[in-house]
Amino acid sequence: MRPDYQGGSIVNLMASVATGLGGRSDYALARDLPPDEIRAARNVVLLVLDGLGYHQLTRALGRGALCGNLRASLTSTFPSTTAAAITTFMTGLAPQAHGLTGWHMYFREIGAVLAVLPFRPRHGGPSLAAGGGITPGELLGHAPLGDALDAATFVVSPAAIVESDFNRAVSGRARRIGYRGVDEMFELVRGIVDAGAERKYVYAYYSEIDSAAHEHGIASAAVGAELARVDAALARFLAAIAGSGTLVIATADHGFVDTRPDTVVELDEHPELAATLALPLCGEPRVAYCYVRPGAGARFERYVESRLGHCATLAASARLLAAGWFGPGEPHPRLAERIGDYILVMKDRYAIRDVLPGERRHPQIGVHGGTSADEMMVPLVVAAP
After folding, report:
1. CA-to-CA distance for 267 and 262, rounded, in angstroms?
2. Closest Cα partner for 9 from 373, 335, 378, 257?
3. First and final C-alpha spacing in the chain
4. How do beta strands 342-346 and 152-158 pair?
5. Number of structural domains, the chain?
6. Whose CA is closest to 122, among 335, 341, 282?
7. Could you give the 3-state DSSP secondary structure of residue 348?
8. Nearest to 80, CA basis, from 344, 341, 286, 343
9. DSSP symbols for 278-297
């Protein structure tokens, strides 16, 4: 399944949000949320529930605040992962333009593989801003969407990350507010929309569904309990802001699939494949960017096709880029450098991972980034209480 950038993706949702709040976008508008509906609201709240796939929501909750206001499904970006999708929410740009393509990325301009959201080298150590004076804003060059809107803007995020280097770079002039727990998040958002007569745009991000799914699996009781907690808190929030002229939009960055031990491919068990690589695998366990040593391309292809063909689709990175998987429009000038020579798109419930010396093995049951419907499809929930 590929992203529907023609009107049915989170890129198009943000095009409608930008247009409805006095900004602009070069992308098609969301089919299921026209800008006029946003323009008519006094306040707009965008609630991003990290990891909540459309199918997971409809399977787990047959009713409640989320399902009761479920308008449609959207597709995520490619890859269907937080680094790419959250940057879309915060900049209004598709990965094609913003150039962030996964949790681990190779930045040729500084000669390093980074864990993008904590903005630190993959091998460890402090963030680049703390250790080397390089900020995400300088390296990435993104213009925050909120800075171009005709509204006072707010970013409400978990206290542990609200002032992270990445969050500061993509939130721009927005007022950043940290919270602890879902009830405090909604309490803070309610206080924002109730304060004063000026128009407000609130981006609120919640991460606990994603965290539980990684550790326990998306089909686990832990995720079900977390989702029920969020749904109940949203119901109370909608009742509390009734009549305030606030439009609440809830969606997600991606969904999940669950792995099993036998569906995880460990690179250190494939030394012949590792020997063809010039860099560690980048991207995600479900979409891996492979940087191949000069002259080793044919050997790399033969190995993947003969030994991993049952669990991975091999694609030349340039082919997926040209086919528009990362989005429409002019590509980021460094995008080609950030997606390797080849991309391994994992099939079914398979994942691939490598572990660097000194890196702690941290098996994850729930994974994302791939092209299955469970990962790619996210809900569009719209409520005007």
Report:
1. 14
2. 378
3. 34
4. unpaired
5. 2
6. 282
7. coil
8. 286
9. SS--EE-SSEEEE-BPTT-H
Residue 98 maps to a domain: yes
| Same structural domain, 253 and 293 | no
Query: Do 134 and 222 lie in a common domain?
Result: yes
| Both tokens assigned to 8 | 């049915």
Beta strands in the chain (DSSP E): 43-49, 70-75, 104-107, 112-115, 120-121, 152-158, 175-179, 200-206, 246-251, 257-258, 264-266, 282-283, 287-290, 312-316, 342-346, 351-353, 366-367, 377-383
CB 10 within 8 A of CB 75: yes
Alpha carbons 380 and 8: distance in angstroms, whole number: 10
Interacting residues of 60 by C-beta distance below 8 A, sequence separation 6+: 223, 224, 227, 228
Q: Report if pTM > 0.85.
A: yes
Q: What share of the chain is helix, strand, coil (3-state, %, to 5)?
A: 35, 20, 40
**Residue the block writes with tokens 């439009």:** 247
Supply the range of the domain harboring residue 163. Answer: 10-258+372-383
Average pLDDT, the chain: 95
Residue range 89-130, pLDDT digits in tens: 999 999 999 999 999 999 999 999 999 999 888 888 888 877
Do 70 and 214 belong together in one domain? yes
Distance separating alpha carbons of residues 10 and 72, to the nearest angstrom: 12
What whole-number percentage of the chain has pLDDT above 90?
89
